[in-house]
Amino acid sequence: MSDEFTLDMLDIPSGWNRGEGDWTGVAAAMKRGETVEVIQEVGSTLWRNSLPKQHSLYWDGENLSTIKGRIWISFTQRRFAPESALPKVQWHPRVLWIGIGCQAGTSRELIETAIQNVCRAYHLAEGAIAGIATIDTKAGELGLLELCQARNWPLKTFAADILSSVEVPNPSNLAAKTVGTPSVAEAAALCAASGESLIKNPLLVPKQIFRSQNPPLLQGGVKVGSAVTVAVAVCSIDYLG
């Protein structure tokens, strides 16, 4: 195997995010031409087309002999044991669309905390988040805009009639009466993940509701939004914007 083929030479899509792992160990194994297993669960596979003929990468399921490293490509946040003799790394294609429903005036901090709680509970990598999706009446919601700007996430919005046409596992009669659709977070996540495709992707995480116990007050003593609804859907195509 060529000792000139290194980890940095992989033509990985620019929108993917590096996750945790022993990057030095995997890089050293590749430079030595040792067998490195690739387990790709999501994201584009076009990067494989640029591999040189002489490389030491092998794919999950092939007849592997001695594995000296492993590359995971997924939306899962894996925790690797530091004492493991096998170096492992993870790349996160941006395939997760986060559907958000929130009250007016909800802070960026509460929205971000709700998303982080969902990611931890379901072992999702924040680096795999493609963007945020919600109803179009929230397009100017300051907390959402601040979060998207800070995290470089696009914000996709959908009209109530579009959202109401999406079948969801947890519709709400109250939401239907107040905003014109029985679902915001779940339906928006599904719409964003489906894009122009006629294929409806199932929800990865059904709606989860997070509430602030002590919401701050705006001027005049009016409480800001104190509840956030989060749902997550997976897109078959990774976001590269």
At the first level of CATH, the class of the largest domain is Alpha Beta
Order of strands, main sheet, comes to 1-5-4-2-3
Roughly what fraction of the amino acids lie in strands? 15-25%
| Helix proportion | 10-25%
Number of strands: 10
Measure the end-to-end span: 35 Å
Rg to the nearest angstrom? 21 Å
pLDDT below 50 for ≥5 consecutive residues: which ranges?
none
Largest sheet: 5 strands, mixed
Q: What would the principal axes of the Cα set say about the shape?
A: elongated
CATH fold category name of the largest domain? Nucleotidyltransferase, domain 5
Average residue pLDDT: 89
> Mind telling me which CATH architecture of the largest domain this is?
2-Layer Sandwich
- Structural class by helix and strand composition: alpha/beta
Number of contiguous helices: 6
Order of helices and strands: EHEEEEEHEHEHHHEE
The CATH H-level homologous superfamily of the largest domain: CobE/GbiG C-terminal domain
The number of distinct structural domains comes to: 2
